[in-house]
Amino acid sequence: MEFGVEVIALLMGVAFVAGLIDAIAGGGGLLTIPALMSVGLPPVHAIATNKLQSSFGTASAVVAFARKGRIDFRRFRWPAVGAFVGSVLGAWTLQRLDPAFLSGLIPVMLVLMAAYFLFGPKPSEEDRHSRLGTTALLLIVAAIGFYDGFFGPGTGSFLATALVVLFGMGLVSATAHTKLLNLSSNIAALIALIIGGKVLWTLGLLMALSSVLGGQIGAHLAMRVGGKVIRPLLVVMSLALTAKLLWDPTNPLRVWLAGLY
Fold first, then answer.
1. How far is CA 241 from CA 83, 149, 211, 235, in A?
2. Biggest CA pair distance of the chain
3. Most confidently predicted of 20-34, 85-99, 189-203, 226-240
4. What are the transmembrane regions (predicted)?
5. Hey, what long-range contacts does 253-261 have (CB within 8 A, 24 or more apart)?
6. HSE-CB of 190 using CA atoms within 13 angstroms
7. How many angstroms separate the Cα of 213 from the Cα of each of 58, 78, 94, 219?
8. What's the mean pLDDT when you consider all of the chain?
Protein backbone atom coordinates (compact mmCIF):
# COMPACT_ATOMS: atom_id res chain seq x y z
CA MET A 1 0.00 0.00 0.00
CA GLU A 2 1.13 3.57 -0.75
CA PHE A 3 0.30 6.63 1.34
CA GLY A 4 0.55 10.37 0.72
CA VAL A 5 2.83 12.71 2.65
CA GLU A 6 -0.10 14.10 4.66
CA VAL A 7 -1.19 10.63 5.81
CA ILE A 8 2.36 9.63 6.77
CA ALA A 9 2.84 12.90 8.70
CA LEU A 10 -0.41 12.31 10.57
CA LEU A 11 0.55 8.76 11.48
CA MET A 12 3.99 9.90 12.66
CA GLY A 13 2.31 12.50 14.89
CA VAL A 14 0.04 9.85 16.35
CA ALA A 15 3.07 7.60 16.94
CA PHE A 16 4.86 10.38 18.86
CA VAL A 17 1.91 10.90 21.21
CA ALA A 18 1.44 7.14 21.58
CA GLY A 19 5.13 6.64 22.41
CA LEU A 20 4.96 9.33 25.08
CA ILE A 21 1.82 7.87 26.68
CA ASP A 22 3.14 4.31 26.39
CA ALA A 23 6.31 5.18 28.31
CA ILE A 24 4.30 6.65 31.19
CA ALA A 25 1.28 4.40 31.55
CA GLY A 26 0.85 2.14 28.51
CA GLY A 27 -2.08 2.18 26.11
CA GLY A 28 -0.40 3.82 23.12
CA GLY A 29 -1.89 1.16 20.86
CA LEU A 30 -5.27 2.71 21.62
CA LEU A 31 -4.16 5.55 19.34
CA THR A 32 -1.97 3.88 16.72
CA ILE A 33 -3.99 0.79 15.82
CA PRO A 34 -7.24 2.69 15.09
CA ALA A 35 -5.18 5.32 13.20
CA LEU A 36 -3.57 2.64 11.02
CA MET A 37 -6.92 0.97 10.37
CA SER A 38 -8.50 4.34 9.52
CA VAL A 39 -6.15 4.71 6.51
CA GLY A 40 -7.19 1.35 5.12
CA LEU A 41 -4.93 -1.27 6.72
CA PRO A 42 -6.56 -4.64 7.52
CA PRO A 43 -6.60 -5.40 11.29
CA VAL A 44 -3.76 -7.94 11.25
CA HIS A 45 -1.52 -5.64 9.16
CA ALA A 46 -2.35 -2.71 11.46
CA ILE A 47 -1.40 -4.75 14.53
CA ALA A 48 1.80 -5.98 12.83
CA THR A 49 2.91 -2.52 11.68
CA ASN A 50 2.09 -1.14 15.13
CA LYS A 51 4.35 -3.77 16.70
CA LEU A 52 7.23 -2.57 14.53
CA GLN A 53 6.90 1.10 15.47
CA SER A 54 6.04 0.50 19.13
CA SER A 55 9.03 -1.83 19.59
CA PHE A 56 11.36 1.06 18.83
CA GLY A 57 9.50 3.42 21.15
CA THR A 58 9.45 0.89 23.98
CA ALA A 59 13.16 0.15 23.49
CA SER A 60 13.97 3.85 23.84
CA ALA A 61 12.00 3.98 27.10
CA VAL A 62 13.86 0.90 28.40
CA VAL A 63 17.18 2.61 27.66
CA ALA A 64 16.06 5.76 29.49
CA PHE A 65 14.95 3.82 32.58
CA ALA A 66 18.03 1.57 32.54
CA ARG A 67 20.39 4.56 32.46
CA LYS A 68 18.83 5.72 35.71
CA GLY A 69 19.23 2.27 37.30
CA ARG A 70 15.46 1.69 37.47
CA ILE A 71 15.42 -1.82 35.95
CA ASP A 72 16.49 -5.01 37.74
CA PHE A 73 17.50 -7.09 34.73
CA ARG A 74 18.58 -10.06 36.85
CA ARG A 75 15.22 -10.46 38.61
CA PHE A 76 13.20 -9.93 35.43
CA ARG A 77 15.21 -11.93 32.92
CA TRP A 78 12.95 -15.00 33.18
CA PRO A 79 9.68 -13.03 33.24
CA ALA A 80 10.96 -11.31 30.08
CA VAL A 81 11.45 -14.75 28.53
CA GLY A 82 7.92 -15.67 29.62
CA ALA A 83 6.55 -12.53 27.95
CA PHE A 84 8.46 -13.44 24.78
CA VAL A 85 7.13 -17.01 24.61
CA GLY A 86 3.57 -15.96 25.45
CA SER A 87 3.63 -13.26 22.79
CA VAL A 88 4.91 -15.63 20.09
CA LEU A 89 1.99 -17.95 20.83
CA GLY A 90 -0.43 -15.02 20.80
CA ALA A 91 0.83 -13.72 17.45
CA TRP A 92 0.70 -17.23 16.00
CA THR A 93 -2.91 -17.54 17.17
CA LEU A 94 -3.79 -14.07 15.83
CA GLN A 95 -2.96 -15.15 12.29
CA ARG A 96 -5.35 -18.10 12.58
CA LEU A 97 -8.30 -16.78 14.58
CA ASP A 98 -10.52 -13.71 14.64
CA PRO A 99 -9.39 -11.61 17.65
CA ALA A 100 -12.80 -9.92 17.90
CA PHE A 101 -14.03 -12.23 20.68
CA LEU A 102 -11.46 -10.71 23.05
CA SER A 103 -13.19 -7.34 22.78
CA GLY A 104 -16.02 -8.62 24.97
CA LEU A 105 -13.74 -9.56 27.87
CA ILE A 106 -11.18 -6.77 27.76
CA PRO A 107 -13.57 -3.91 28.69
CA VAL A 108 -14.52 -5.71 31.90
CA MET A 109 -10.86 -6.19 32.85
CA LEU A 110 -10.03 -2.57 32.06
CA VAL A 111 -12.91 -1.22 34.15
CA LEU A 112 -11.84 -3.36 37.11
CA MET A 113 -8.29 -2.10 36.74
CA ALA A 114 -9.41 1.54 36.61
CA ALA A 115 -11.63 0.98 39.66
CA TYR A 116 -8.65 -0.33 41.62
CA PHE A 117 -6.57 2.76 40.91
CA LEU A 118 -9.55 5.06 41.62
CA PHE A 119 -10.88 3.50 44.80
CA GLY A 120 -8.15 1.15 46.04
CA PRO A 121 -5.29 2.06 48.37
CA LYS A 122 -2.93 4.62 46.93
CA PRO A 123 0.07 2.82 45.39
CA SER A 124 3.36 3.58 47.08
CA GLU A 125 6.32 5.10 45.30
CA GLU A 126 8.46 2.48 47.06
CA ASP A 127 8.56 -1.28 46.55
CA ARG A 128 6.73 -3.41 49.13
CA HIS A 129 6.60 -7.11 49.97
CA SER A 130 5.45 -9.21 47.03
CA ARG A 131 2.28 -11.23 47.53
CA LEU A 132 3.31 -13.86 44.99
CA GLY A 133 6.53 -15.62 44.05
CA THR A 134 8.71 -15.85 40.96
CA THR A 135 6.73 -18.68 39.35
CA ALA A 136 3.49 -16.72 39.59
CA LEU A 137 5.23 -13.67 38.12
CA LEU A 138 6.47 -15.76 35.19
CA LEU A 139 3.03 -17.27 34.48
CA ILE A 140 1.12 -13.99 34.78
CA VAL A 141 3.58 -12.15 32.55
CA ALA A 142 3.42 -14.98 29.98
CA ALA A 143 -0.39 -14.73 29.93
CA ILE A 144 -0.27 -10.96 29.41
CA GLY A 145 2.40 -11.54 26.75
CA PHE A 146 -0.01 -13.85 24.93
CA TYR A 147 -2.59 -11.06 24.94
CA ASP A 148 0.01 -8.61 23.62
CA GLY A 149 0.88 -10.87 20.70
CA PHE A 150 -2.78 -11.58 19.99
CA PHE A 151 -4.21 -8.06 20.28
CA GLY A 152 -2.07 -5.57 22.21
CA PRO A 153 -3.70 -2.32 23.37
CA GLY A 154 -3.64 -1.99 27.16
CA THR A 155 -0.78 -4.45 27.67
CA GLY A 156 1.35 -1.87 29.48
CA SER A 157 -1.55 -1.01 31.78
CA PHE A 158 -2.17 -4.67 32.58
CA LEU A 159 1.50 -5.30 33.32
CA ALA A 160 1.85 -2.21 35.51
CA THR A 161 -1.29 -3.10 37.47
CA ALA A 162 -0.11 -6.68 38.05
CA LEU A 163 3.32 -5.54 39.26
CA VAL A 164 1.76 -3.02 41.67
CA VAL A 165 -1.15 -5.09 43.01
CA LEU A 166 0.31 -8.61 43.05
CA PHE A 167 4.03 -8.04 43.35
CA GLY A 168 4.24 -4.97 45.60
CA MET A 169 6.20 -2.69 43.29
CA GLY A 170 6.07 1.10 43.45
CA LEU A 171 4.49 2.83 40.48
CA VAL A 172 7.70 4.17 38.95
CA SER A 173 9.49 0.84 39.39
CA ALA A 174 6.50 -1.04 37.96
CA THR A 175 6.41 1.32 34.98
CA ALA A 176 10.12 0.83 34.29
CA HIS A 177 9.91 -2.98 34.43
CA THR A 178 6.71 -2.93 32.39
CA LYS A 179 8.70 -1.38 29.54
CA LEU A 180 11.23 -4.24 29.68
CA LEU A 181 8.52 -6.91 29.63
CA ASN A 182 6.55 -5.09 26.95
CA LEU A 183 9.66 -4.80 24.78
CA SER A 184 10.19 -8.55 25.01
CA SER A 185 6.58 -9.31 24.05
CA ASN A 186 6.64 -6.72 21.26
CA ILE A 187 9.78 -8.18 19.69
CA ALA A 188 8.40 -11.71 19.91
CA ALA A 189 5.11 -10.77 18.25
CA LEU A 190 6.96 -8.73 15.64
CA ILE A 191 9.14 -11.70 14.66
CA ALA A 192 6.08 -13.93 14.27
CA LEU A 193 4.25 -11.31 12.21
CA ILE A 194 7.30 -10.63 10.03
CA ILE A 195 7.47 -14.34 9.23
CA GLY A 196 3.78 -14.13 8.33
CA GLY A 197 4.49 -11.22 5.97
CA LYS A 198 2.12 -8.81 7.71
CA VAL A 199 4.43 -5.81 8.40
CA LEU A 200 4.48 -2.62 6.30
CA TRP A 201 8.15 -1.75 6.74
CA THR A 202 8.45 1.78 5.36
CA LEU A 203 5.43 3.11 7.20
CA GLY A 204 6.34 1.28 10.40
CA LEU A 205 9.92 2.60 10.44
CA LEU A 206 8.83 6.18 9.80
CA MET A 207 6.37 5.95 12.69
CA ALA A 208 9.14 4.38 14.80
CA LEU A 209 11.22 7.57 14.53
CA SER A 210 8.44 9.54 16.19
CA SER A 211 7.72 6.78 18.68
CA VAL A 212 11.36 6.79 19.89
CA LEU A 213 11.25 10.52 20.58
CA GLY A 214 7.93 10.19 22.39
CA GLY A 215 9.25 7.25 24.43
CA GLN A 216 12.30 9.18 25.59
CA ILE A 217 10.24 12.17 26.70
CA GLY A 218 7.62 9.98 28.39
CA ALA A 219 10.20 7.96 30.34
CA HIS A 220 11.87 11.09 31.70
CA LEU A 221 8.47 12.52 32.67
CA ALA A 222 7.56 9.29 34.49
CA MET A 223 10.76 9.38 36.54
CA ARG A 224 10.39 13.08 37.31
CA VAL A 225 6.74 13.24 38.40
CA GLY A 226 6.17 9.63 39.49
CA GLY A 227 2.73 8.41 40.53
CA LYS A 228 1.16 11.88 40.31
CA VAL A 229 0.93 11.38 36.56
CA ILE A 230 1.15 7.60 36.18
CA ARG A 231 -1.89 6.74 38.31
CA PRO A 232 -4.33 9.18 36.60
CA LEU A 233 -3.05 8.19 33.15
CA LEU A 234 -3.58 4.51 33.91
CA VAL A 235 -7.19 5.27 34.80
CA VAL A 236 -7.75 7.52 31.78
CA MET A 237 -6.18 5.11 29.29
CA SER A 238 -8.09 2.15 30.74
CA LEU A 239 -11.45 3.91 30.50
CA ALA A 240 -10.63 5.35 27.06
CA LEU A 241 -9.77 1.91 25.70
CA THR A 242 -12.97 0.52 27.25
CA ALA A 243 -15.03 3.22 25.52
CA LYS A 244 -13.24 2.58 22.23
CA LEU A 245 -13.97 -1.14 22.34
CA LEU A 246 -17.60 -0.69 23.38
CA TRP A 247 -18.16 1.93 20.66
CA ASP A 248 -18.07 -0.91 18.13
CA PRO A 249 -21.71 -2.01 17.66
CA THR A 250 -20.52 -5.58 17.06
CA ASN A 251 -18.68 -5.80 20.40
CA PRO A 252 -20.00 -8.96 22.16
CA LEU A 253 -20.34 -7.21 25.52
CA ARG A 254 -22.26 -4.30 23.96
CA VAL A 255 -24.55 -6.74 22.13
CA TRP A 256 -25.15 -8.64 25.38
CA LEU A 257 -25.91 -5.45 27.33
CA ALA A 258 -28.25 -4.25 24.58
CA GLY A 259 -30.07 -7.58 24.78
CA LEU A 260 -30.86 -6.94 28.44
CA TYR A 261 -32.97 -3.98 27.39
1. 22, 17, 19, 10
2. 54
3. 189-203
4. 7-33, 45-66, 78-94, 100-119, 131-150, 156-175, 187-209, 229-247
5. 253/103, 253/104, 253/105, 253/107, 253/108, 256/104
6. 19
7. 10, 29, 29, 10
8. 83
